[in-house]
């Protein structure tokens, strides 16, 4: 009461009348009931609180009951951005040699049917669309990850039975005794399920290690250890150290920061001394007589690509290029030759945005 009076708070449980008991805690012997859990709200928003009720049906194995409040607050509407989900091919199937051979044959047949385009943008669009379509046809769509269920059906049935006794009269000795027994069985069954899940993850980890699948090994280690990536905070401060919450103001603050960082004040250094420094070519191994990249150079560059990297705006991963075979190398050779002669690159190559 003193805290509410000092901070001008209103106890929501005292504003609404209900026929059932407002008690939020029952003693283990079922003889004592107290209202010790509350929902407090500022007096300024008192009329935004529509109802406060004790829910005896919610069961989490505790002697406290859930206190539920219904609140309505008018907030500023924010435009919701709905991102379209793109189907991603199952790139992991390219680890199978038979799938790689099927992928190469499909690309060869599809590229043979293409009409030789003169426009660079059309050439790149046809190449990109062909690689994407063949990948989806041969490799299939990557299934979405389904969250693994730790609890068995036995544990779920026990939890459901425990919830039934939770909703019954807590003053009855029979109900309290049955609830206590079921609560012990639930804890024991859940512990067994957790041990079985950890054993399964460890077995999968050993199998992935034997096959040399280091990416799966580290994924399993992170899952079983419970380590997750820390979320990067979006808080931005102004020059005085105050937080900025408005998105537009945050963008202006970032603009101001990088403008000052990348445009420092001019110093008094004498730049005339740099005139006597001889210029050095950036690429010593290139000459005016060099031509466009050859097939061997393209094949060598594709082999050097690393796996398991994010795709760019073209939505083509390194594996789709790396295991494309001679047909894909031939199409890249024609594309690079056109770029070399026209001295123009496709518009997608100017965008280096990575999708995460």
Average of the residue pLDDT scores: 82
Number of strands: 8
Q: Taking Cα atoms only, what radius of gyration do you get, to the nearest Å?
A: 33 Å
The global form is extended
What is the share of helical residues?
40-55%
| Number of helical regions | 10
**Structural class based on helices, strands and sheet pairing:** mainly alpha
Distance between the first and last residues' Cα: 50 Å
Poorly predicted tracts of residues: none
Spell out the helices and strands N to C.
Answer: HEEEEEEHHHHHEEHHHH
Which percent band covers the strand fraction?
Answer: 5-15%
Major β-sheet annotation: 2 strands, antiparallel
Descriptive overview:
By secondary structure, this protein is mostly helical. It contains 10 helices and 8 strands. The mean pLDDT is 82.
Pick out its properties.
single chain, 356 residues, mainly alpha, two-stranded antiparallel sheet, 8 strands, 8% strand
Tell me briefly what this model is.
The protein contains 10 helices and 8 strands.
């Amino acid at each position: 009461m003193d805290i509410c009076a000092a901070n001008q708070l209103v106890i929501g449980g005292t504003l609404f009348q209900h026929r059932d008991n407002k008690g939020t805690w029952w003693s283990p012997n079922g003889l004592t009931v107290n209202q010790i859990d509350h929902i407090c709200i500022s007096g300024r928003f008192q009329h935004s609180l529509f109802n406060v009720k004790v829910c005896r049906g919610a069961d989490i194995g505790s002697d406290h009951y859930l206190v539920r409040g219904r609140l309505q607050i008018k907030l500023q509407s924010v435009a919701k951005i709905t991102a379209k989900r793109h189907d991603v091919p199952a790139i992991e199937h390219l680890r199978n040699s038979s799938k790689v051979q099927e992928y190469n044959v499909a690309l060869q047949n599809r590229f043979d049917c293409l009409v030789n385009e003169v426009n660079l943008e059309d050439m790149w669009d046809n190449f990109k669309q062909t690689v994407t379509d063949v990948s989806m046809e041969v490799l299939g769509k990557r299934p979405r990850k389904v969250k693994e269920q730790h609890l068995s059906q036995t544990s779920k049935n026990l939890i459901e039975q425990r919830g039934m006794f939770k909703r019954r009269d807590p003053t009855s000795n029979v109900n309290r005794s049955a609830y206590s027994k079921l609560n012990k069985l639930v804890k024991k069954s859940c512990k067994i399920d957790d041990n079985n899940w950890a054993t399964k993850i460890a077995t999968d980890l050993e199998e992935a290690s034997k096959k040399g699948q280091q990416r799966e090994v580290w994924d399993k280690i992170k899952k079983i250890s419970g380590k997750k990536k820390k979320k990067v905070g979006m808080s931005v401060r102004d020059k005085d150290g105050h937080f900025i919450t408005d998105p537009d103001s945050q963008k202006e603050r970032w603009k101001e920061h990088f403008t000052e960082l990348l445009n420092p004040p001019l110093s008094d250094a004498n730049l005339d001394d740099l005139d006597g420094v001889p210029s050095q070519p950036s690429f010593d191994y290139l000459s005016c007589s060099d031509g466009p990249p050859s097939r061997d150079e393209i094949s060598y560059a594709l082999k050097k690509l690393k796996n398991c990297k994010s795709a760019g705006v073209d939505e083509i991963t390194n594996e789709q290029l790396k295991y494309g075979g001679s047909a894909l190398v031939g199409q890249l050779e024609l594309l690079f030759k056109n770029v070399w002669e026209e001295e123009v690159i496709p518009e997608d190559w100017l965008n280096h945005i990575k999708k995460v």
